[in-house]
Each structure stands twice: as structure tokens, then as C-alpha cells.
Amino acid sequence: MAKPKKASKSSKEAAVPASAQPSLSVSWPAFKPELPVVDLDIQLHPATPKIALISSFFPRSLCREYVAFLKTLPLQTTPARPKRGEAVRVNDRFQIDDPMLAARLWENTGLREAILENQDLKHLWGGEPIGLNPNIRVYRYTKGQYFDCHYDDSNALILPSQPPVPVKTTWTCLLYLTSSAEGCIGGETVFYPHDRKSAAEEIAVPLETGALLLHKHGNDCLLHEGREVLDGEKWILRTDLCIKR
Ligand SMILES: O=C(O)CCC(=O)C(=O)O
Ligand SMILES: [Fe+2]
């Protein structure tokens, strides 16, 4: 197999990535019913402490509302040919720098408490968690679309709070908004713990509507892919966990 690629090239020290669409402001749907609807429980994957899952992070009704809303955004289909050094990603994407949404996902969902109050998992985050990456990415994968094997980078940025806080990202956060419950077949996020694409060693995380998948990134990132969607639509929202630096 060819050498796995980085997910994307982004500035190592940037408050707003050049590739974001900064001029646009988005009125995201409110978190209704008020979140969390259940006590958030962070479950480490039985095969590795580099993957964790929070089920029912969003209730199914809110996922449905988000998908209906996200469909109205100007998603861009990936160029067929990736830039040199980038992984092949075939999907439709919307990216925005939105500190307000990042703060709401951290403060108004129960995520902050779930992470900060879990003493058993404290050593995993790489430092003191302080928020989420304002760089929000929305992906839609339709039939035949996928994200080939790659590693996610850690990025250094400044959270635009009062006062601004220098942080670095340590874990990728993927919010699954659809699954087989909505008719999406395939699209699992698959990890390869030994840096090679081997079916025998794969850790496949199936889509689960409303679940938040967290996986360690940067130097500790597992090789991973978004497997091809065979039917229906896979919708995810991506941000990253930020620690103080
Ligand atoms: O779509 C997926 O399941 C994986 C997405 C991913 O790897 C990424 O956004 O870096
Ligand atoms: Fe990734």
C-alpha cells in the first residue's frame, strides 16, 4: 500500500484556517430538547484506549433536524484529484470557523463535564481540555463516497475567548448524524492499529445516530478511513478536542 496520507494540510498556527469559509455566518438549530438528554458516558473501545465513544450525545430528533438544516448549506464536492500529500477524500464538505458553535458543543451538551469530571480518563487527553476547535467540518457521503486511509494532524491554534487561549488539538471528535437507522449502509470509521490496512487487524466503528466518536490524533493517531457508503447518506460533523498549551 502507498504511504498513508495526512487528512489535510492546515496551518500549524492559525486561528482561522485559510481553507475555511469565514465570511459566512450560519444559524445552527438550537439544541432542543435541552442537552444532555442522558448522562454522557465516555466508553473506551475495548481494543484500544485511543478510541472512545459517547452514545446519545445528540438525541435522534436533533440529528434529524441537523441533517435537514445541513442540507441547506453550500457543500462542496471534493476535487477528484487530491493535492500532493493529501488523502483521497470523496465526499461533500462544508467547513466554517465558528467559535460560537464550538463553545455550544463544549458547554451546552454535557461534554465539558463528561470529560473534566472523569478522573479515570484524565491521562488520555494529553493535557488540560479547554474547549473544541472552532474549525467545524460537515461531511456528507453518498453512495460510493469514502475517505481513504490517513492520519489526522494535531494543530496549534488560539481559541478566540476573552482572553484568547493558546491551545493544541489532541483528539478528533466525529458526531454521527445518521446510521443504518436512517438507511445508511456502510460508512464505518475503520482504524488500523499497526499502520497498515489489514482486514485481520481492523477496528471498525459502525455508525450510530447521535454518537460522538473521539479518537486520539497527532503523533498518536491510528491509521483510519471512512469506509465507502453503500447506500443512503452518511452525515457527520467534525471538530477536535483542544488542550491548553
Ligand atoms: O468519515 C469518517 O468516518 C472519518 C472522517 C475522518 O477521518 C476525518 O474527518 O478526518
Ligand atoms: Fe481522519
TrEMBL record:
The organism of origin for this protein: Bionectria ochroleuca
PANTHER family to which the protein is assigned, alphabetical: PROLYL 4-HYDROXYLASE ALPHA SUBUNIT, PROLYL 4-HYDROXYLASE ALPHA SUBUNIT DOMAIN-CONTAINING PROTEIN
Keyword DNA-binding included in the entry's annotation: no
Occurrences of domain Fe2OG dioxygenase (ranges): 131-243
Record key words, sorted: Dioxygenase, Iron, Metal-binding, Oxidoreductase
Keyword Secreted: no
Protein name (record): Fe2OG dioxygenase domain-containing protein
Name of one Pfam family that matches: 2OG-FeII_Oxy_3
InterPro entries in alphabetical order: Oxoglu/Fe-dep_dioxygenase_dom, P4HA-like, Pro_4_hyd_alph, Pro_4_hyd_alph_FE2OG_OXY
Cofactor: L-ascorbate
